[in-house]
Amino acid sequence: MACHRFRKTIAMLLAVTAFAASAGQISDKTLDQQCPAFSSWEKAQHKPVSTKRVTKPTDPALRKQLLGMFKIDQDARDALIKAGIQKPDPKLAKRMLEVDAANLKKLKPIIASHGFPTPSMVGKDGVDAAFILVQHADSDPVFQAKVLPQLVSLRKQGAVSGQDFAMLTDRVLRAQHKRQRYGTQFFNKHTHGVMVPEPMQDPAHVDA
């Protein structure tokens, strides 16, 4: 079971890294050509994340803690990627899993006590950090599923992006062995060297 989790975690890291790299190379013009309905949907329905700055978060200590956890999270992943993700270093991969476990141990009581943090509490960067930490809590899919409903109201307020909400929704669904809804989760199909989406509920209408 441990080996299976290790392979799955590395595969997910490969998928996210490769997908992010390819996505970064896609221009808005190209995206419009490939998905012409996206621009109109975004303008009509997409509620952007609030850009209102919170000069003094009401819980600066919590913000500092979340940002510190996030930095450790990113440092562990950056080290693994820098060493070469085609042949992941087992020690660095193990370190990444240990960091995720340690962060999860700290994050669960934070969410239990405060709920998912808001921008007024911890600032936008604190919210972003909290989201990434939840995303990387794959060892506890039940916890991720419990956090998801809290993002619904935050999404309506513009405190959490639609992209983040979609990503966690799909992550929770896949952990429950269900088909993803928004098509955000990919895996690396080595036989063709391309990113392939995980099974979707309705691939023909996923854009809508």
**H/E order of the elements?**
HHHHHHHHEE
First and last CA, distance = 38 Å
Which spans of ≥5 residues are poorly predicted at pLDDT below 50?
Answer: 1-11, 14-28, 41-51
Q: Largest beta sheet, briefly?
A: 2 strands, antiparallel
Number of strands: 2
Strands in their spatial order, largest beta sheet: 1-2
- Class inferred from helices and paired strands: mainly alpha
Which percent band covers the strand fraction?
A: under 5%
Note the main attributes of this structure.
single chain, globular, mainly alpha, 208 residues, 2 strands
What do you see in this structure?
Helix 4 (60-83) runs antiparallel to helix 5. 65% of the residues lie in helices and 4% in strands. It has helices spanning 2-24, 28-34, 37-45, 60-83, 90-114, 119-135, 141-157, 162-175; strands at 186-189, 194-197. The protein is globular. The chain is mainly alpha-helical and 208 residues long. It has a two-stranded antiparallel sheet with strand order 1-2.
